[in-house]
Amino acid sequence: MTPWQTQYAEKLLPKCAPRKGRPLGGDISVSWLGTTGLLVSDGNDALLVDPFVTRPPLWKVALARPVCPDAAAIGRLYSMIREAPVRAVLVSHSHYDHSMDAPAFAQFFNCPLLGSLSTVNVARGFCMDGGCTQEITPGDVLRVGRFSISVLESVHGPAFLGRIPYRGTIDEPLVPPVPVSRYRLGTAFSFHLLHPSGSLVVHTSAGFRPGMFNGIVADSVLLGIGGRGDTAEYLEAVVRPLGDPLIVPIHWDHFFIPLDQPLRPLAGVHLKEFLDTAERLFPGRVRTLPLLDAVTLPGGGEAKRSR
Ligand SMILES: [Zn+2]
């Protein structure tokens, strides 16, 4: 372990109740970690997407107070998922609620962190070994175990008063603590994960370009719904081209309160309106995930991967 890991592990892990991962049997399972955090696993190989547990309170965000990764919260989650065979941490964009904690998890799992150059600079500021970070760009196809991951160019949703917050890039190592506004967007990605047991699209932010998913079919879509525009328009643009996927909303929870407090929707996300509209447009194809519990996704296999 690095000195950083030792410090965190010694201080934090003994307080945490370890939980064994459940056997997964080769199907793809997804555990939702809050916000857009996901643990995707086939039992042999696993990926973490946007793991984020620091969740600073709203007043700190609003008043631009410096924040840094919450060692206790990171340790608690790590203790719950450490049995998972995590091979890579993927970051969809470098806003703080996606990238801030990712280097810590990559260090704990001793695996590469994959993200935009801005995300790489988050990792550098976190003293991650340069050899453990990898810049990814749209069009890249990554192979992790039996997962094939296509990196797609994406668009951030108009999350704050109709505008994209914290635009721009992070051009030098970002050393916390800093105000969350320093975690600038960078390049936004979506991910298409193909696996012999099924396929899924991870679309973390509720923006889109018309046609961005043309030619891609998925069994499930993990769909960021925070800061979306019109729900029906969003679903028609992003979900309809994917065929008939299971729709799993993410990024709907109140992420200014700690994960150990009862989960509740963020008011502006209008979760019920999303669920009602999605059910009307895609009957029987919508479900929410419990927090921190592995759920097996429907399969379809690689045969459904493209038209
Ligand atoms: Zn964002």
| Beta-strand content | 15-25%
The termini sit apart by: 45 Å
Low-confidence stretches: 1-25, 301-307
Query: Looking across the biggest beta sheet, what order are the strands in?
Result: 6-5-4-3-2-1-13
What level of helicity do the residues show? 10-25%
Bound molecules: zinc ion
User: How would you classify the helix and strand content by structural class?
Assistant: alpha/beta
Number of strands: 13
Task: Explain what this protein looks like in three dimensions.
This protein is of the alpha/beta class. It has one domain (3-15, 26-304): Metallo-beta-lactamase, Chain A, CATH 3.60.15.10. Helix content is 21%, strand content 19%. The chain has eight helices and 13 strands. It has helices at residues 3-12, 58-62, 71-81, 96-99, 102-109, 117-125, 231-238, 271-281, and strands spanning 29-32, 38-41, 46-49, 86-90, 113-115, 133-135, 141-144, 147-153, 189-195, 198-203, 220-224, 246-250, 295-296. Strands 6-5-4-3-2-1-13 form a seven-stranded mixed sheet. A six-stranded mixed sheet has the order 7-8-9-10-11-12, with no helix packed on it. A hairpin with a 4-residue loop joins strand 2 (38-41) and strand 3. Residues 1-25 and 301-307 have low confidence and may be disordered. Zinc ion (ZN) binds at residues 93, 95, 156, 205.
